[in-house]
Design a protein that fits this description.
single chain; mainly alpha; Rna Polymerase Sigma Factor, Chain: A; Arc Repressor Mutant, subunit A; globular
């Protein structure tokens, strides 16, 4: 029996790779599997840090908050619930933690207003963690998004660049899924209005967002 348990544990460890499904990693991590925890942290570190830089240009602060979150998850792993989307769970947890950290510096409503100027600005540190293979079209969309209201930017970022569903975004932002859809439609309409007019405008715009929808 003991040998069987050891063999089973060793098998789980050897099966964990960069291709292992999130749900398998999450369950193994909650059971105390350090390899699963390390793989999840590695898999989502850049994504979470990139998201954190939406709220503050201070990369050191964002990294500190992210490290605190990862430590908290490990220490409280036995109390974590199952989740249909590990990515959503991590983004939501990180958003809550970083806003909570920044809130003493400014009331949340004032902070949201400040983000309007910071949301899509690229610091030199953020540029270092961006994917080197991002397409020119995606970069152009991100530049145009700087002209959108902050809430529209966040909804587009979570929907198209992080792949979250309207229900998940609504949960994160404490609004109804229909409100998410309405904000998204207004954002896309605004993007259409400010997109540089070129002969290939319609094809480029719709092909980009149809792929992500």
């Amino acid at each position: 029996m003991i040998l069987a348990c050891l063999f089973s544990t060793e098998l789980i460890l050897t099966q964990i790779t960069k291709h292992t499904d999130d749900s398998i990693l999450w369950d193994s991590f909650r059971d105390g599997n350090e390899a699963a925890y390390t793989e999840l942290a590695t898999r989502y570190y850049r994504t979470l840090l990139h998201y954190g830089l939406r709220f503050t240009p201070n990369i050191h602060l964002a990294e500190d908050v992210l490290q605190d979150l990862l430590i908290h998850l490990w220490l409280h792993r036995k109390n974590l619930n199952d989740t249909p989307s590990v990515k959503f769970y991590l983004l939501k947890s990180f958003r809550h933690r970083i806003i909570k950290t920044l809130k003493p510096l400014s009331e949340e409503q004032e902070l949201t207003g400040q983000l309007d100027d910071q949301w899509m600005e690229s610091s030199s540190e953020e540029m270092m963690i961006r994917n080197e293979n991002e397409s020119g079209l995606e970069n152009q969309v991100k530049e145009l998004m700087t002209q959108l209201p902050v809430r529209q930017r966040e909804v587009i970022y979570l929907r198209f660049f992080q792949g979250l569903k309207s229900e998940e975004i609504g949960t994160m932002l404490a609004i109804k899924p229909q409100s998410v859809s309405n904000i998204l439609q207004r954002a896309l309409s605004n993007l259409r209005n400010i997109w540089p007019i070129t002969p290939s405008f319609s094809f480029i715009f719709y092909s980009f967002f149809e792929i992500l929808l």
